[in-house]
Design brief:
Rossmann fold; 2 domains; alpha/beta; ligase activity; 36% helix; GMP Synthetase, Chain A, domain 3; nine-stranded mixed beta sheet; 463 residues; CapK_Type1_Caps_Biosynth; Phenylacetate-coenzyme A ligase PaaK, adenylate-forming domain family; four-stranded mixed beta sheet; 20 strands; ANL_N_sf
Length: 463
């Protein structure tokens, strides 16, 4: 299958990434400024939306802080005027992403496409050209910390690894689409890299992982914790040497639980649909931001700059790699702290602390008194993909009862509630929950956590 990949471009960017690894913070700033000027020039030339939003007289050398911030809703509402290639059309892209058989296939023969899950209430569609993908590939390959240096030295391409991605596999999501793209680029990976859906019942997922026996598992922290629980009970016999987590906040408690129970080394990363490889975790356990290719501006609740060392209410992201679908001062809504001190690992890249989504697993009643865990990402995927509900709050009342809150009212709200309740009920039963009641409440605001993102799924408090 043809895919979006240029080995020569990847080689060129990889050499620059390696140079930055051995460079200085001043060298990163120089790269930022040069790449920002190129981005602004391309955006001014090709994006009608940004030209209408930016002050008169804006040039490629205009300081970033003089430009207005933008939101996902604002950009998606003006999608066709946002992108710089007039051949890219939102309606056609929606038809493309509606077809799961086309995941990781090139759009128009030259674009990688993925969709966001709609955490903020507004799903997004993101388009990357070969230049953008080369940046992501280089950052992932050369910045992700090797947990077993000797093994990586003996097998630099990871051909002896058996890699299992465990996540949402029903849509064009960035992580799953990226796995499928890698398998298409390197046929050897077709047998050594596999994807497993978090939407199947837990016992089926465990059986599949036992049969595959992965050496590396790539997943979300809540899934890693679930797998550790299954290993502790004796159900999961597979013992991966490494666990790579991302997509959710990884707490110290979950890290310790996973490492001690599975005996696996855990490495965390930070990314988003808007920029796939924002940060990586070094051997000292610190998250480093790839600021040679992405600019992060921590801001307070009034979108004013937050000084280093202080937590933000949100962060404005500027993607320096993507000139096709520019993201300039984009409100990412994550809670982030940019630390002023250099890391002892020697990297010139800044250290950040990220507080992202902290949805909770729901423990429900199963057969013979056995608990059944419903994973938050699986629940949100069911509501988004199967029910078309993106703005919601799901609260567990007890081990048999869920309460689904939707801000919508009127006929639209009632229709969304019927779809949501039916999808949740069917999913819970398929997972092994023996008695399930999903109650409906319309017109309820979705609560927001400290991260600024919606706290969409919360568990009941045990007595």
């Amino acid at each position: 299958m043809h895919t979006v990949f240029d080995p020569l471009r990847l080689s060129s960017i990889s050499m620059d990434v390696m140079a930055v690894n051995r460079g200085t913070p001043q060298g990163i700033v120089q790269r930022q400024q040069a790449r920002l000027a190129q981005l602004l020039e391309a955006t001014l030339r090709g994006s009608r939306l940004y030209r209408s939003l930016w002050p008169a007289g804006t040039t490629a050398n205009t300081p970033l802080e003089q430009l207005p911030m933008v939101t996902r809703g604002q950009l998606m509402a003006n999608f066709d005027h946002w992108v710089t290639d007039p051949q890219i059309n939102l309606e056609a892209l929606r038809q493309f992403t509606a077809d799961p058989t086309r995941i990781a296939q090139p759009w128009l023969g030259r674009y990688m496409v993925w969709e966001s899950s709609g955490t903020s209430g507004e799903p997004g569609i993101f388009v990357q050209d070969v230049a953008t993908m080369a940046v992501y590939d280089a950052l992932e390959a050369l910045r992700r910390c090797a947990t077993r240096p000797l093994a990586r030295w003996l097998d630099p391409l990871g051909l002896t690894e058996r890699i299992a991605f465990v996540g949402a596999t029903g849509g064009h999501f960035a992580s799953y689409a990226s796995v499928q793209r890698l398998r298409a680029i390197n046929p050897v990976l077709s047998s050594t890299m596999r994807s497993f859906s978090i939407q199947v019942p837990t016992h089926m997922l465990v059986a599949q992982l036992n049969a595959f026996s992965p050496s590396v598992v790539v997943t979300y922290p809540t899934v890693a914790a679930l797998l550790a629980d299954e290993a502790r009970s004796g159900a999961l016999r597979a013992r991966p040497r490494e666990i790579w987590t991302g997509g959710e906040s990884l707490s110290p408690a979950v890290r310790t639980h996973v490492q001690q129970t599975l005996g696996s080394l855990v490495r965390n990363s930070y990314g988003s649909s808007e920029f796939l490889a924002i940060g990586w975790e070094c051997a000292h356990g610190h998250m480093h931001a790839n600021t040679d290719w992405v600019i992060l501006e921590p801001v307070d609740e009034h979108f004013r700059p937050v000084p280093p060392g202080h937590p933000s209410c949100s962060v404005l992201l500027t993607n320096l790699a993507n000139h096709v679908q520019p993201l300039v001062r984009y409100n990412l809504s994550d809670h982030l702290t940019l630390h002023p001190e250099r890391c002892a690992c020697g990297s010139p890249l800044p250290v950040i602390t990220v507080q992202g989504r902290r949805d909770e697993p729901l423990i429900m009643a199963g057969a013979n008194g056995q608990p059944v865990t419903l994973l938050p990402l699986a629940l949100s995927t069911v509501l988004e993909d199967e029910a078309g509900v993106f703005d919601f709050y799901l609260h567990q009342l007890d081990d048999t009862t869920l309460v689904l809150h939707i801000p919508l009212e009127g006929e639209a709200g009632r229709a969304a509630m019927v779809r949501g309740c039916a999808a949740l009920t069917a999913f819970a039963i398929a997972q092994g929950v023996t008695a399930i009641e999903v109650r409906a409440e319309l017109g309820q605001a979705v609560p927001r956590g400290r991260s600024g993102k919606a706290c969409r799924i919360t568990a009941c408090i045990a007595d």
